[in-house]
Amino acid sequence: MNREDVAKNRHFLADRRWVFPLVIAGLIAGAILTSSFIKAADYSMLCSVVNSRSSQVVAEVSVANNRSSSQAVAETTATAVQLQAIIHYATSRIVPQQSFGEISVTFDVLKKRCPCNFLVFGLGYDSLMWTSLNPNGHTVFLEEDPKWVQTVLKDAPGLHAHPVKYRTQLREADALLSHYRSEKNCFPSKAYLRGNTKCKLALTGFPDEFYDTEWDLIMIDAPRGYFPAAPGRMAAIFSAAVMARNRKGPGVTHVFLHDIDRKVEKTFAEEFLCRKYLVKAVGRLWHFEIPSAASMSSHGGAQFC
After folding, report:
1. Does residue 111 surpass a pLDDT of 50?
2. Which one of 1, 123, 244, 292 has the fewest beta carbons within 10 angstroms of its own beta carbon?
3. CA 233 to chain centroid
4. Which residues have a Cβ under 8 Å from the Cβ of 269 and sit 6 or more positions away?
């Protein structure tokens, strides 16, 4: 996902530079083909929102069967960003930083939830892939380095990315945990994000879109967290937990945390995302399904887990 992994894996990536891009291109192409076959069978897009009210099923099928063939073909056509992604990964030596197994965890959820609101912390070599796997959805990337945003958008101007600033540093991780346990505005029953300057773990000063959107999927693969002065992912993990708990819509919020092999990521995941909500672990990726506070049997107190 991010540049820190590029330095660590440069030699390994060189060996697989032609294999993995083709695999990713095939993954995206497979998603398009799957959507097409399903459309041919039941005249509904793979990523159409499923209507659970049985009283409308017959009416919807009738309308679908009366569509013209041209309309059906139009709806099965791959989006422009999907086609761009296939070409990009099929011809590029630069590959996504997550493994195929790790990517598949998120992809399996996207197949069920898209089109959805997908928030990604970090902008990198897999951003085009994530956008293409959420066709007709809303995928937004948050990146700490404004120059890197310009570099990526130069080659992929269709991506939706915001440069953001973090208030934390990795060296403060232990102190931030102590702060959260004593600051009432960080408590799960009172925590909020926009304008919450008293809670040092709350992400403040971000674009309005970040606060105004109810995110279905949240991927945390940034900011940098491998040297003391780096922002670290403490605030991103805390804020993801707050957004998930404050969810108003149906269902859970899916949170994916990468680099779980590192101490800070693991510690903050267990503190805020909770082991009991961990549903899958593949490689260095943990997948959580976090219910809203309204759906929890007990959600008071001063701790998230």
Report:
1. yes
2. 292
3. 14
4. 237, 257, 260, 286, 288
